């Protein structure tokens, strides 16, 4: 009995290895095309085997032979008879899902599995300075990074940033990619990205701190000048009154 089970176990192992073990995730920018290749050697038995590309295990996209593109995908999908690959065109968010290549004959055999995720290009974020302070001669900057219905506040020095509080986002935007704030190359960078695109806004750290010092200097000069002018006016007025009385 054991001698019979051993070859069967080997056969099951070989069959398992011949099929893709898990889906391959592919991220696609909205409006772009993607080509899906079979993931194992495919040889179709004439007059027996038919290859299908399916969407979410239910909808047929194409079949071969003969080469047929099903109605919903006409103009949006192309099948290659040379290598059995599938070209999907102008992908939209509703095209996200599972795509399988299945050889159907005496037995069904999966020869490719892809999990397609269509994403929009991220919107450019906006980085603003909320406050600037100096502690023991070290400049500290609090910034707000905003983008696509989400925002994050961070406290930064010349080398690093730390988040202040949690990220705030609207309830309907749970799928919006997160923002990140960090220091690189002497600048504070607000980065907004997903798997297919990225955008950033930057502010030079030194410039922010210099503007603060310049503002303080101008404010101090203005206050000093105002006080001096006030004293002069008061003295001048007193002298005028004294002359008038005499």
Automatic annotation (TrEMBL):
<dbReference type="InterPro" id="IPR003599">
    <property type="entry name" value="Ig_sub"/>
</dbReference>
<keyword id="KW-0472">Membrane</keyword>
<dbReference type="Pfam" id="PF07686">
    <property type="entry name" value="V-set"/>
</dbReference>
<keyword id="KW-0325">Glycoprotein</keyword>
<dbReference type="GO" id="GO:0016020">
    <property type="term" value="C:membrane"/>
</dbReference>
<dbReference type="InterPro" id="IPR036179">
    <property type="entry name" value="Ig-like_dom_sf"/>
</dbReference>
<feature type="compositionally biased region" description="Basic residues">
    <location>
        <begin position="236"/>
        <end position="246"/>
    </location>
</feature>
<dbReference type="InterPro" id="IPR015631">
    <property type="entry name" value="CD2/SLAM_rcpt"/>
</dbReference>
<keyword id="KW-0732">Signal</keyword>
<feature type="domain" description="Immunoglobulin">
    <location>
        <begin position="23"/>
        <end position="119"/>
    </location>
</feature>
<feature type="region of interest" description="Disordered">
    <location>
        <begin position="226"/>
        <end position="246"/>
    </location>
</feature>
<protein>
    <recommendedName>
        <fullName>Immunoglobulin domain-containing protein</fullName>
    </recommendedName>
</protein>
<dbReference type="InterPro" id="IPR013783">
    <property type="entry name" value="Ig-like_fold"/>
</dbReference>
<feature type="signal peptide">
    <location>
        <begin position="1"/>
        <end position="20"/>
    </location>
</feature>
<dbReference type="InterPro" id="IPR013106">
    <property type="entry name" value="Ig_V-set"/>
</dbReference>
């Amino acid at each position: 009995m054991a001698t019979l089970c051993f070859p069967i176990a080997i056969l099951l192992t070989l069959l398992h290895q011949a099929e893709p073990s898990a889906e391959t995730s592919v991220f696609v920018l909205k409006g772009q095309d993607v080509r899906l290749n079979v993931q194992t050697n495919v040889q179709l038995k004439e007059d027996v085997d038919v290859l299908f590309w399916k969407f979410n295990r239910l909808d047929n996209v194409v079949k071969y032979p003969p080469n047929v593109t099903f109605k919903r995908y006409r103009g949006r999908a192309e099948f290659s008879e040379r290598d059995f690959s599938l070209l999907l065109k102008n992908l939209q968010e509703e095209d996200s899902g599972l795509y399988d290549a299945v050889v159907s004959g005496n037995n069904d055999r999966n020869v490719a599995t892809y999990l397609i995720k269509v994403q929009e290009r991220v919107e450019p974020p906006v980085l603003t300075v909320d406050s600037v302070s100096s502690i023991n001669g070290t400049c500290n900057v609090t910034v707000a990074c905003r983008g696509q219905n989400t925002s994050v506040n961070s406290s930064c020095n010349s080398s690093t940033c730390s988040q202040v509080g949690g990220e705030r986002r609207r309830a309907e935007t749970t799928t919006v990619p997160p923002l990140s704030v960090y220091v690189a190359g002497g600048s504070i960078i607000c980065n907004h990205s997903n798997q297919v695109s990225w955008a950033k806004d930057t502010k030079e750290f030194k410039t922010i701190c210099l503007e603060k010092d310049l503002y303080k200097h101008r404010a101090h000069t203005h206050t000093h000048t105002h006080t001096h002018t006030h004293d002069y006016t008061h003295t001048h007025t007193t002298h005028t009154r004294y002359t008038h009385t005499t």
